[in-house]
Amino acid sequence: MGRWLTWVSDQRLQGWACSQCDWTFPIPSLLTDPEAKSAYDRLASVKFREHDCAAHGKRGTTSTEEGFAERARKLVVRGFKPKDAAEITIQEILLEHRNEPGAAERARRDAEDFLRRVKDGLI
Ligand SMILES: [Zn+2]
Predict the structure, then answer these.
(1) In 86-102, which positions are buried (b, 16+ CB within 10 angstroms) versus exposed (e)?
(2) What is the pTM of this model?
(3) Cα 115 to middle of ligand 1, angstroms
């Protein structure tokens, strides 16, 4: 079965994870510089290629909500341009979380990260 990098952003973890197993690569919390983020992304993709799914547990299903990148990626797979996919995902998240303070800002930030990664060829 194919595996891919998926971006997780919840209370438990913020960072890259494997779609098939419990492998994760959490982002350092103080990382805000775009260049440092790109470096972190590149490192994550190397580490991801090197990891062995069998050595990690099966991916847990504790998170019921799909991450931003995962949702946007599915739209891209269906033929949307990354920019449109990001915009659609933002609108969906805003609808789902309209009573949640900070949700809009988080969605915009996730969208920026998503588009930057598309540009860097990581997604
Ligand atoms: Zn894995």
Answers:
(1) beebbeebeeeeeeeee
(2) 0.54
(3) 24
Measured CA to CA, the distance from residue 32 to residue 14 in angstroms comes to 13
Query: Rounded to an integer, what distance in angstroms lies between the CA atom of residue 21 and that of residue 40?
Result: 20
Element (H, E) at 99: none
What's the gap in Å between 94 CA and the centre of ligand 1? 31
User: What's the maximum distance between 2 C-alpha atoms anywhere in the chain?
Assistant: 41
Smallest CA-to-CA distance from 12 within 52, 65, 55, 50 is with: 65
Across the chain, mean pLDDT equals: 86
Least confident of 32-36, 39-43, 44-48: 32-36
Q: Which amino acid is at 47?
A: K
